[in-house]
Amino acid sequence: DQQVKQNSPSLSVQEGRISILNCDYTNSMFDYFLWYKKYPAEGPTFLISISSIKDKNEDGRFTVFLNKSAKHLSLHIVPSQPGDSAVYFCAASHFYSGGGADGLTFGKGTHLIIQP
Amino acid sequence: GAVVSQHPSWVICKSGTSVKIECRSLDFQATTMFWYRQFPKQSLMLMATSNEGSKATYEQGVEKDKFLINHASLTLSTLTVTSAHPEDSSFYICSARGDGEIGYGYTFGSGTRLTVV
């Protein structure tokens, strides 16, 4: 039973346009969400995160939106650049009040291809 | 920023032998380390969580006697794949979390490609 779902295995976007990657989750305990970029045979690279107390977080070209009622988040990349081509993983976790946190639950990833 | 070093980056071993993978946090104390596995074209799956000085907690379906995890210090965790078989061939990635400002998030190592022949 997948608790974090990325329903688009791939997405093709023209350079300069906006890329929107979507992610849905089912576990109500998740309160911290992250997006990672990954290349084959490499570890994931952190992009941006958002806590469940917020609905938007922005960092440069990357913006993450969280809709808690719909259990949905999205990553917007604008403008998209050729170097953005990679697999993007959505991940979720639960943080404890004492400072600890669960391991991450990942989606299956979306392969983003930026067309020149 | 937080850096996690993972070694080796790739290893080939014979069926039945054991392989050890090291994960080190270089500039922060990792109170918690996580081990993941990724099969080709699949997601990263959490295998186990280890807190320094405690026994690791394994996810359902992960054999604790096969995947031995040691987190003896605040900067080092090891994963030993014992009596490896071809079906253990996978990409193993560690992640570390600290309590301080550095390493508060999840910092990943670069991964280890294990091939069992």
Structural commentary:
The complex is a heterodimer of chains A (116) and B (117). Chain A is mostly beta strands and 116 residues long. Chain A has no helices and eleven strands. In chain A, a hairpin with a 4-residue loop joins strand 7 and strand 8 (72-77). The radius of gyration of chain A is 14 Å and the shape is globular. The model of chain A has no long low-confidence stretch (mean pLDDT 95). With 117 residues, chain B is mainly β. Chain B is built from no helices and eleven strands. Chain B has strands spanning 4-7, 10-13, 19-25, 30-38, 44-51, 57-58, 67-73, 76-81, 90-98, 107-108, 112-116. Helix content of chain B is 0%, strand content 54%. In chain B, a hairpin with an 8-residue loop joins strand 9 (90-98) and strand 10 (107-108). The A-B interface holds A 34, 36, 41-46, 49, 89, 93, 99-109 and B 4, 6, 10, 31-32, 34, 36, 42-46, 49, 51, 59, 91, 93, 95, 97, 99, 105-111, 113.
